[in-house]
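Why do we care about 3D structure at all? Because function follows from shape, and shape follows, mostly, from sequence. That is the central idea of this module. The next example makes it concrete: a single protein chain, its amino acid sequence, and then its structure expressed as tokens.
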Amino acid sequence: MSPNRNPLHESAKGLKPVADCIALGALADRARALDALDERLRHLLPAAVARETRLADVRNGRIVFLASSPTWASRIRLYQAALLAEARAALGGAVERFAVKVAPLPTVPPEPTKPKPLSAATARHLRATAKALSDPELRALYLHLASIAADDPE
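And the structure:
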């Protein structure tokens, strides 16, 4: 290796400036379109296969699915003809090839859970505790918590 050669600098030559990359709006539109197509295609599959597979990409006339294991990859291949026909219908006939890759499926974040309201009994306990506290700031915090309880009479 020559003394003037920097491998870090050389590997960075292939990077593009952010301005030269795809626009964020176009990227979001593509993600939404892939998600809609994924949902449409997986409706053709049995529930167990649909749970273990996801549409990963559509490019150059090929649809690519991800399967969580080789077993699920084999099972989705059984539906290749139906999936290709549906993809052609959805995309105007631009799909000719089908591929499956085995990879961990991306996780879907759970829906945020709605916080449970405080009960009236909890509000009473908070007020009773607040009365026993000598610190005025802490007392105010306890009383504020008690005031947001469900069906709080006070």
